[in-house]
């Protein structure tokens, strides 16, 4: 099986071909206003709603006829895509614009920025207030454009959304009122834009699906733009709300076209979805019910400080902060402050507030900051008094959500299929030792095969299995495990009076996972102080806390609920991050790269020369005012960028920053190589602009290869592309002496020296003698003539381009014949230099290539270069990146491994490894359904061109 066959077998079939249209400028003039459609790029275009349109063409034709429209044949629709049809359409729009009256023009357009200049008192309608008996009434409302279905020059359907509620609007031309220009303008508004609309409610001609109103719709009279969606979005709300076609997904597996990783990387967009809105309405419902239930029980809401002077419960799990030169810590719970409030005779308190945990746990159920629902209360005789109150409160939450939030729960179930939570009026309370007994008697064992110990805490797997056993025995998803072992509880927990190995504490579980930890606290000052010392905590560091007990504190108990975890488990969201508005986990706040000291500061893309020197930016897109390409490569380039000089590469430039992206047309695809030439902080914006231009102007499908991890994240998370890696940038530390670690290389170098091979270097600030150039050019031709078969490469052999950013080394044998060449090229300061060319020519003495390459690397190290790359090489294994998982990936990896071994794809990599090279993964990225057999062919044609 060939490499091409491997990729073809496990990728989607390509979409219908797109007419090729190469060349052209990446900029557009103001005259393009009539062809705005050509410049709209996002996942809005060519996605699910257009497939839906094609499947329902008969319904559209029926609807058009009912509205007095003339249905066009599919041939007519195709004809509209031709350049001649576009020209006719533009001319028709220009003629229609001439006939518009001022009254007609006032019905659409962009409103001035709202700056609170006046208040008209105009009443806007909320969709939730619309009813069927309002047919015939005129309303004014503000909403987002959720979806657009274009039906021709005279008719367009717009789906409007207010939070989770949608309704369909119809806009069609009317003599002397609504022009075809208005229809054209409206149908090209970007999805997600905010508009103000005046419309009349009417009965729908046919039932309207995929909206909240099936029998009524809005006849649009006026529509004005309040806020335009300016930037590309990786997915639309319409796409995110669609349910994936896998009807029988098991519980806990999301049925969605858009992966969670992409959603979480674009959080604001995801929060606009029906599911996002529903999650946080349910979260709000939990908080309201929690407060109401405790208020009725005589509790007082308090707000405790989150900055503390000592590491409270566990010094290893707190965040240390600089507090005016002194150490302070973010509270990992309000525990100590709650107890101090009880000591202050508050009797019963609760808090809803932030909790911080410095635990490096990258799991589906851990956050470093979450919302805690905490209670603390004085007790009379037994800590079960508090346990019963928290039990009552939680069940109040369950009842409220399933009664008052039915709509939100049904929305969640569409993408998160799960059964309703089951609980008993009398909650089962199981002693910890009995729970361990249940597990052991069921045959459950630890990973080492040993039975579970009754004095050690549950593991996550144990909890889940116990939940299954409890569901079988008691028929409930909700239960309490009481009397936890002392080893699993903090110092302030009251020991059990019956067995000191256990404590007066409990956990509450939902669907087999813990959501509440609670218990009785030690209120005796001497016992508390001794327990602190046993836990190696100095009581003197917690003086304020201790005074509350030394001055006398009542017996008390308390508990804490994790809000996000409770919500996740109730509705089987599968990932706690989805239950947190803007989640914080160990990977939040990634380190930002240090600002680079550019080789050519005046060719910066952050501060381009026309902004610093006052040079006016060109209006017509002339590139002679942009930064020179060779200086951009020296500022921002990687090993791939040095190939961009070849004639087959086409360079796109951004007029605002001067940033550059290179691509090679191959079939109906564009093969894009390497990272954009710009500051990494600009990757997201430049990528969106380029892809928009590529789609609308050049009409090629993108395949991005050899991009860095930073760029892979932009494409995988920001655009939802599939990514994988089977190549790596092979970098070496020039300051390391490889001769000291590899005897084989040392032996070969000594052999070359014995053959009287001499190495000469030409600094980049010195001209290269023409006779030397001629001799090297002749030997390069000898090398090419000696090569057999097709070669995979990125660039041609052109050693004399951009000489000021290159350093040359050549070797001659004892006959004076040039026998080897190494060319080093300057890259971005973050990448150092590249071994652009490294040849030993026919007849070179054995060891020559090792000799000259090692000499060049060591020379670079002596000149202060700290990183040097050989460029891309094949890796031993294939690595799956974003949006790739499952059995297909495993088969693909297995096939690639076999191919790599059979054809020795890593032969060059192994040689470079002997010179000290280490691998840094590079990625291939492509849109979903964007590769296929044609994409594979385009990629192979590019590599073999």
From TrEMBL:
This is Aspartate--tRNA ligase, cytoplasmic. InterPro entries: Aa-tRNA-synt_II (IPR004364), aa-tRNA-synth_II (IPR006195), aa-tRNA-synth_II/BPL/LPL (IPR045864), Asp-tRNA_synthase_2 (IPR004523), Asp/Asn-tRNA-synth_IIb (IPR002312), LPG_synthase_C (IPR024320), NA-bd_OB-fold (IPR012340). It is an enzyme of class 6 (ligase). Residues 80-102 have a biased composition (Basic and acidic residues). Residues 1-102 are annotated as: Disordered. It catalyses: tRNA(Asp) + L-aspartate + ATP = L-aspartyl-tRNA(Asp) + AMP + diphosphate. It is found in: Cytoplasm. The keyword Ligase applies. Residues 280-590 form the Aminoacyl-transfer RNA synthetases class-II family profile domain. Its EC number is 6.1.1.12. Belongs to the class-II aminoacyl-tRNA synthetase family. Type 2 subfamily. It comes from Ascosphaera apis ARSEF 7405. Its main location: cytoplasm. CDD domains: AspRS_cyto_N (cd04320), AsxRS_core (cd00776). NCBIfam families: aspS_nondisc, PRK05159.1. GO terms for molecular function: aspartate-tRNA ligase activity; ATP binding; RNA binding. HAMAP family: Asp_tRNA_synth_type2. GO terms for biological process: aspartyl-tRNA aminoacylation. Keywords: Aminoacyl-tRNA synthetase, ATP-binding, Cytoplasm, Ligase, Nucleotide-binding, Protein biosynthesis. GO terms for cellular component: aminoacyl-tRNA synthetase multienzyme complex; cytosol.
């Amino acid at each position: 099986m060939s490499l091409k066959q491997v990729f073809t077998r496990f990728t989607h079939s390509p979409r219908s071909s797109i007419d090729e249209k190469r060349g052209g400028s990446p900029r557009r003039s103001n005259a393009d206003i009539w062809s705005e459609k050509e410049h709209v790029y996002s996942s809005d275009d060519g996605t699910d709603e257009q497939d839906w349109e094609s499947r329902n063409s008969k319904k559209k034709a029926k609807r058009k006829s009912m509205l007095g429209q003339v249905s066009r044949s599919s041939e007519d629709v195709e004809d509209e895509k031709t350049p001649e049809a576009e020209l006719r359409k533009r001319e028709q729009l220009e003629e229609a614009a001439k006939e518009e009256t001022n009254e007609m023009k006032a019905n659409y357009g962009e409103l001035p920025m709202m700056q609170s200049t006046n208040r008209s008192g105009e009443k806007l309608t909320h969709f939730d207030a619309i009813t069927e008996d309002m047919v015939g009434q005129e309303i004014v409302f503000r909403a987002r454009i959720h979806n657009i279905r274009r039906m021709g020059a005279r008719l367009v359907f717009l789906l409007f959304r207010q939070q989770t509620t949608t309704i369909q609007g119809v806009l069609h031309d009317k003599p002397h009122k609504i022009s075809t220009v208005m229809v054209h303008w409206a149908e090209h508004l970007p999805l997600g834009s905010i508009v103000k609309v005046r419309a009349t409610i009417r009965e729908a001609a046919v039932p309207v699906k995929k909206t909240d109103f099936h029998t009524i719709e809005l006849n649009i009279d006026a529509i004005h733009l309040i806020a335009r969606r300016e930037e590309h979005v990786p997915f639309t709300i319409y796409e995110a709300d669609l349910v994936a076609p896998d009807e029988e997904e098991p519980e806990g597996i999301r049925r969605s076209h858009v992966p969670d990783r992409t959603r979480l990387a674009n959080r604001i967009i995801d929060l606009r979805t029906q599911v996002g809105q529903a999650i946080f309405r349910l979260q709000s419902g939990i908080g309201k019910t929690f407060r109401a239930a405790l208020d009725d029980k005589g509790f007082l809401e308090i707000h405790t400080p989150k900055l503390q002077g000592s590491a409270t419960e566990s010094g290893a799990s707190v965040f240390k902060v600089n507090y005016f030169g002194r150490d302070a810590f973010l509270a990992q719970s309000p525990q100590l402050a709650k107890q101090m409030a009880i000591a202050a005779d508050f009797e019963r308190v609760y808090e809803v507030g932030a909790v911080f945990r410095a635990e490096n746990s990258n799991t589906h159920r851990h956050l470093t900051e979450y919302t805690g629902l905490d209670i603390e209360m004085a007790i009379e005789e037994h800590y079960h008094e508090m346990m019963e109150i928290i039990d009552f409160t939680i069940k109040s939450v369950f009842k409220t959500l399933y009664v008052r939030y039915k709509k939100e729960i049904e929305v969640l179930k569409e993408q998160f299929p799960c059964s309703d939570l089951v609980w008993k009026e009398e909650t089962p309370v199981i002693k910890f030792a009995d729970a361990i007994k249940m597990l052991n008697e069921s045959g459950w064992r630890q990973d080492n095969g040993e039975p579970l110990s009754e004095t050690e805490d549950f593991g996550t797997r144990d909890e889940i299995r116990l939940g299954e056993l409890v569901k079988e025995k008691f028929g409930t998803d909700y239960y309490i495990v009481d009397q936890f072992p002392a080893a699993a509880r903090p110092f302030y927990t009251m020991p059990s009076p019956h067995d000191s190995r256990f404590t007066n504490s409990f956990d509450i579980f939902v669907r087999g996972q813990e959501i509440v930890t609670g218990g009785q606290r030690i209120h005796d000052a001497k016992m508390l102080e001794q327990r602190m010392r046993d836990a190696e905590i100095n009581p003197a560091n917690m003086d304020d806390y201790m005074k509350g007990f030394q001055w006398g504190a009542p017996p008390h108990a308390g508990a804490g609920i994790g809000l996000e975890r409770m919500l996740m488990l109730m509705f089987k969201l599968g990932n706690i991050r989805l239950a947190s508005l803007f989640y914080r986990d160990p990977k939040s706040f990634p380190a930002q790269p240090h600002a680079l000291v550019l080789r050519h500061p005046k060719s910066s893309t952050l501060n381009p020369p026309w902004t610093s020197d006052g040079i006016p930016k060109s209006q017509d897109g002339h590139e002679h005012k942009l930064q020179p390409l060779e200086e951009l490569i020296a500022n921002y380039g990687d090993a791939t960028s040095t190939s961009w000089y070849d004639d087959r590469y086409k360079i796109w430039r951004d007029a605002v920053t001067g940033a550059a992206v290179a691509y090679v047309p191959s079939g109906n695809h564009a093969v894009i190589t390497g990272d954009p030439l710009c500051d990494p902080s600009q990757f997201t914006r430049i990528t969106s602009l380029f892809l928009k231009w590529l789609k609308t102007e050049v009409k090629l499908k993108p395949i991005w290869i050899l991009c860095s991890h930073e760029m892979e994240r932009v494409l995988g998370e920001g655009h939802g592309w599939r990514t994988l890696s089977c190549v790596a940038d092979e970098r070496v530390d020039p300051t390391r002496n490889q001769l000291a670690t590899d005897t084989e290389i040392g032996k070969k170098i000594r052999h070359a020296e014995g053959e009287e091979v001499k190495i000469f270097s030409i600094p980049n600030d010195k001209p290269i003698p023409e006779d030397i150039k001629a001799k090297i050019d002749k030997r390069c031709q000898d090398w090419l003539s000696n090569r057999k078969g097709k070669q995979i490469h990125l660039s041609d052999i052109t050693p004399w381009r951009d000489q000021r950013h290159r350093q040359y080394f050549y070797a001659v044998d004892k006959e004076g014949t040039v026998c080897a060449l190494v060319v080093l090229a300057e890259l971005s300061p973050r990448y150092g230099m590249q071994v652009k060319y490294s040849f030993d020519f026919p007849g070179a003495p054995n060891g020559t290539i090792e000799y000259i390459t090692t000499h060049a690397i060591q020379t670079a190290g002596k000149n202060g270069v700290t990183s040097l790359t050989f460029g891309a090489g094949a890796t031993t294994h294939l690595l799956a990146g974003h949006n790739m998982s499952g059995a297909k990936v495993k088969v693909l990896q297995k096939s690639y491994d076999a191919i790599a071994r059979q054809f020795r794809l890593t032969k060059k990599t192994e040689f470079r490894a002997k010179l000290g090279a280490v691998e840094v993964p590079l990625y291939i990225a492509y849109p979903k359904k964007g590769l296929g057999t044609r994409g594979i062919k385009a990629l192979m044609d590019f590599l073999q061109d």
